[in-house]
UniProtKB/TrEMBL annotation:
Pfam families: Cob_adeno_trans
Record note on quaternary structure: Homotrimer.
Family the entry assigns: Belongs to the Cob(I)alamin adenosyltransferase family.
Lineage: Bacteria, Bacillati, Bacillota, Bacilli, Bacillales
InterPro entries named in the record: CblAdoTrfase-like, CblAdoTrfase-like_sf, PduO-typ
Organism expressing this protein natively: Halalkalibacter okhensis
All residue ranges annotated as the Cobalamin adenosyltransferase-like domain in the record: 3-168
Pathway connected to this protein: Cofactor biosynthesis; adenosylcobalamin biosynthesis; adenosylcobalamin from cob(II)yrinate a,c-diamide: step 2/7
UniProt keyword annotations, A-Z: ATP-binding, Cobalamin biosynthesis, Nucleotide-binding, Transferase
EC number: 2.5.1.17
GO annotation terms (biological process): cobalamin biosynthetic process
Recorded superkingdom: Bacteria
Name of the protein described by the UniProt record: Corrinoid adenosyltransferase
């Protein structure tokens, strides 16, 4: 098998159901989920097994789910032969884990900056790349068929990355970096972000 095919040399790529220009919103949407998957792999590599086996297992699960999302996004139209793969259970799992991690993290009163431990900083990168993927999927969804679960999943996933970035810092004894000009904005301490 050859790694290169030369089929993309004219600026188009194959998707399920046809060919699109590489700067098409659909291609950018699933390409951004692939970029996100790479950053998750980096975060997994930065987390030690002893303290973070639970988070590492979850992140690998999420990598597989993002492949499912990417496949759904690469599909111009779902068919009987190519049904959508992303399901509601994926969202339910993220919400359950967010609730657990919100309780584990220290009380949150102010906005925080991305940072702290190296793995936590990488997880904040994952959070912001997830938001970018979400924006592309939202744009795509306005005009074309898209599995609606993918947009919801990405929305919850960014919240998940926020929660685990804080937990990683806490388990390592590293404080979150508070935005120094922030007022107290989270009056109830720990609470889930608005969705």
């Amino acid at each position: 098998m050859k790694l290169y095919t030369r089929t993309g040399d004219e600026g188009k790529t194959s998707v399920i159901g046809g060919r699109l220009y590489k700067d098409d919103t659909r291609v950018i949407a699933y390409g951004t989920t692939d970029e996100l998957n790479s950053f998750i792999g980096q975060a997994v590599a930065q987390l030690n097994e002893n303290q973070f086996s639970d988070i590492k297992m979850e992140l690998i699960k999420i990598q597989h789910e993002l492949f499912d999302c990417g496949g759904d996004l690469a599909m111009i139209k779902s068919t009987k032969d190519y049904p959508y793969k992303a399901k509601q259970e994926m969202i339910d799992f993220l919400e359950e884990r967010i609730d657990v991690y919100i309780e584990e993290a220290p009380k949150l009163e102010r906005f925080i900056l991305p940072g702290g431990a190296e793995a936590a900083a990488t997880l904040h990168v994952c959070r912001t790349v997830t938001r970018r993927a979400e924006r592309y999927v939202a744009r795509l969804q306005r005009n074309e068929e898209v599995n609606p679960i993918v947009l919801k999943y990405l929305n919850r996933l960014s919240d998940y990355f926020f929660a685990i970035a804080r937990v990683v810092n806490a388990r390592l004894g590293v404080g979150d970096v508070e935005y120094e000009r922030s007022a107290i904005v989270f009056k109830g301490g720990n609470r889930k972000k608005e969705q």
